[in-house]
Amino acid sequence: MPWTSEDAEKHTHKATTDHLQALWAKVANECLERTEDEGRAIREANAVVARQAERE
């Protein structure tokens, strides 16, 4: 089941905007499709959102 932007709040507190939440879902779903590893997908999405949040 793919993640939605609403799921971002459950996994990271840094996804504070709609844009960051959508980014989290996109990265998580792409990684999950590529690796089939949910834990890795969440970690990668969290890392991307954390880097992006620092820039904003």
Report the structural category.
Answer: mainly alpha
> What ranges have pLDDT less than 50 throughout 5 or more consecutive residues?
none
Q: From the alpha-carbon coordinates, what is the Rg to the nearest angstrom?
A: 10 Å
| Order of helix and strand elements from N to C terminus | HHH
Helix content: over 70%
List how many beta strands DSSP finds: 0
Main sheet: strands, sense, barrel: none
Q: Give the number of helices.
A: 3
Strand content: under 5%
The residue-averaged pLDDT reads 95
Structural domains: how many: 1
Outline? globular
Terminal Cα span: 30 Å
Describe this structure in words.
The protein is an all-alpha fold. It has one domain. It is 71% helix and 0% strand. It is built from 3 helices and no strands. It has helices at 8-11, 18-35, 38-55. Helix 2 (18-35) runs antiparallel to helix 3 (38-55). The model has no long low-confidence stretch (mean pLDDT 95).
